[in-house]
Design a protein that fits this description.
Blueprint: E1 3-9, H1 13-24, H2 26-33, E2 36-43, E3 60-61, H3 64-68, E4 73-78, H4 86-95, E5 99-102, H5 105-121, E6 126-127, H6 138-145, E7 151-157, H7 160-172, H8 176-185, H9 194-197, H10 200-214, H11 233-241, E8 244-255, E9 260-271, E10 283-290, E11 294-301, H12 305-321, H13 324-335, E12 342-343, E13 350-360, H14 365-375, E14 380-384, E15 395-402, E16 405-406, H15 407-418, E17 428-432
Parallel strand pairs: 1-2, 1-4, 2-3, 4-5, 5-6, 9-12, 9-17
Antiparallel strand pairs: 7-8, 7-10, 8-9, 10-11, 13-15, 13-16, 13-17, 14-15
The chain binds L-homoserine (HSE).
């Protein structure tokens, strides 16, 4: 049987999972690739670090030049995190004639278009299935299986840590800090979970999907984002009363007759029973709508050693047999400026909103709030204010659901309402995903 020599750079959690599959399940890779995927080099920074996988001594090395200079290796899984040295190593691998497979979403979200362009110039490819939603094969599906479609929207849960926390808060009424601690004890959340809970991780993955699905070459830091780190239990409870769940959603929608793309990440209300609303624990999900296929839903493990390794090894096989080129062709299509869609102004983002104002329970306050909403052209669909009796509690939550309105109008109204002396200055506003 023919052989494709493979290298791995970085033997962290995912790298070890990839090595395990390559070393223990050569039969599977051979069956699907029609050739043996032979692990020839595993490059690490620290040779003395303990590892769960037994790598033969002649494969393990801390000298990347061995891999770079080995012309018999045609594809490398580059599995180090962060921007540098991952970016320089990726470029060197490409320049030495190797195709690259990576799980590094931070690198692709910041420098993807530039790395893809360089790979194309060199006649090489970069495969990145594992960079978005871990084990869910969303990259191959968007770029290959759904290639007959114009994708019109992608709404996704792309951060398992946030979904674990918010699901437990919703289902069990649990406190944010307690659930975060549990997630850390279970190894589901990082010791420093900032990038997960503030929406950065999800927005990086959204930037990659937006490039692939719509040709939006946007830097992730330009996409508006909010995480789950300041979500209040009372808003989850109100949402529940009205038949909704709150989820951290990565949102992409084609607008302006296909010329623009709206992108954002934030906690949103979704009607209970909708597939995305029911995604629990640390699972990820992506809901894609294509103009021919209609809605398609993907669900699975978005992180973890073996789910991520599953995606990396599939990419190694695809690269070995030349299928990665299909994904790369999609990116190439978008590299043509005429076909690209532009990132639409966030202020134009339209949708319904959940709003909560803590107001003084005085005559005329509801009227003040509704007239400021009316001045911005925002129509109210429903209102909740629970009776609190005649005790000393003079501030009550006033909860409203609006009809569709522009983000800019909602922002202006919220600012004016928060400035009213009868309203506490910390109103809440969450988008409703319809
Ligand atoms: N930390 C991420 C998550 C997985 O919680 O989903 C890696 O992107």
């Amino acid at each position: 049987m023919e052989k494709t020599n493979v290298g791995i750079v970085g033997l962290g959690t995912v790298g070890q999972g990839v090595a395990k599959i390559l070393l223990d399940h050569g039969d599977r890779t051979a069956r699907h690739a029609g050739r043996t995927l032979w692990l020839k080099h595993a490059i690490v920074r620290d040779l003395s670090k303990p590892r769960d996988v037994n790598i033969p001594d002649d494969i393990l090395s801390d000298d990347i030049e061995r891999l770079i200079n080995d012309e018999s290796v045609s594809v490398v899984a580059q599995l180090i995190g962060g921007i540098e040295p991952a970016k320089s190593i990726t470029l060197r691998l490409l320049e030495s004639g190797k195709d690259v497979v990576t799980a590094n979403k931070a690198l692709l979200a910041a420098h993807g278009p530039e790395l893809f362009d360089r790979a194309r110039e060199l006649g090489r490819s970069i495969a990145f299935e594992a960079s978005v939603a871990g084990g869910i094969p969303i990259i191959a599906n968007v770029s290959q299986c759904l290639s007959a479609n114009q994708i019109t929207s992608m709404h996704a849960i792309l951060n398992g840590t946030s979904n674990f926390i918010i699901s437990k808060m919703d289902l069990e009424g649990a406190d944010y800090n307690e659930v975060l601690k549990t997630a850390q004890e279970l190894g589901l959340a990082e010791a420093d979970p900032t990038m997960d809970v503030d929406g950065s991780d999800a927005v990086q993955k959204l930037a990659i999907l937006a490039h692939l699905g719509f040709g939006a070459r946007v830097h992730w830091s330009d996409i508006p984002k909010r995480g789950i780190d300041n979500i209040q239990a009372c808003d989850m409870a109100f949402a529940k009363q009205m038949g909704y769940r709150v989820k951290l959603i990565a949102y992409a929608k084609l607008v302006d007759n296909g010329k623009g793309i709206q992108l954002c990440v934030g906690p949103m209300l979704i009607k209970a029973g909708e597939p995305l609303a029911e995604v629990q624990a640390n699972y990820n999900a992506v809901s894609v709508v294509g103009d021919a296929v209609g809605p398609v839903f993907f669900h699975g493990q978005g992180a973890g050693q073996m789910p991520t390794a599953s995606a990396v090894v599939a990419d190694l096989i695809d690269t070995a047999v030349g299928r990665t080129d299909l994904t790369f062709k999609t990116l190439e299509l978008w590299a043509d400026g005429n076909k690209r869609v532009e990132f639409a102004s966030p202020g134009e983002l339209e949708g319904r909103f959940y709003m909560r104002f803590d107001v003084q329970d005085h005559p005329g306050v509801l009227g003040q709030v509704t007239s400021l909403l009316g001045e911005q052209g925002i129509s109210i669909a429903s209102v909740i204010q629970h009776e609190v009796g005649d005790g000393p509690a003079k501030t009550v939550p006033l909860v409203m659901m609006t009809h569709a309105a522009k983000e800019s109008a909602a922002t202006a109204a919220m600012t004016q309402i928060a400035a009213l002396p009868t309203v506490a200055d910390t109103p809440e506003r969450l988008r409703i995903l319809d």
